[in-house]
Amino acid sequence: MDIRKWDNSNGDKKILKGITLTDDEAKKLKDALNKYYKEA
Predict the structure, then answer these.
(1) What does the buried/exposed string (b/e) look like for 1-40 if buried means 16 or more CB atoms within 10 Å of the residue's CB?
(2) CB of 18 within 8 A of CB of 5?
(3) Residue 16 sits in which domain range?
(4) How many folded domains does the chain comprise?
(5) What is the pLDDT of residue 13?
(6) How many CA atoms lie within 13 A of 12 on its CB side?
(7) Residue pLDDT, tens place only, 1-40
C-alpha cells in the first residue's frame, strides 16, 4: 500500500514524499488505529 502526496498544481501529476506498507504492516496499522479510536 502506497500512501503518497501528489502535486497536480501545474497540470502534471508529480509524486511527492510518502511511505509504502506491506499488507501485514497495513493490517497492523489499521488494527492499532481502530484500537486507538475506540479508546479515545
Answers:
(1) eeeeeeeeeeeeeeeeeeeeeeeeeeeeeeeeeeeeeeee
(2) yes
(3) 2-39
(4) 1
(5) 87
(6) 4
(7) 999 998 988 888 898 999 999 999 999 999 999 999 998 7
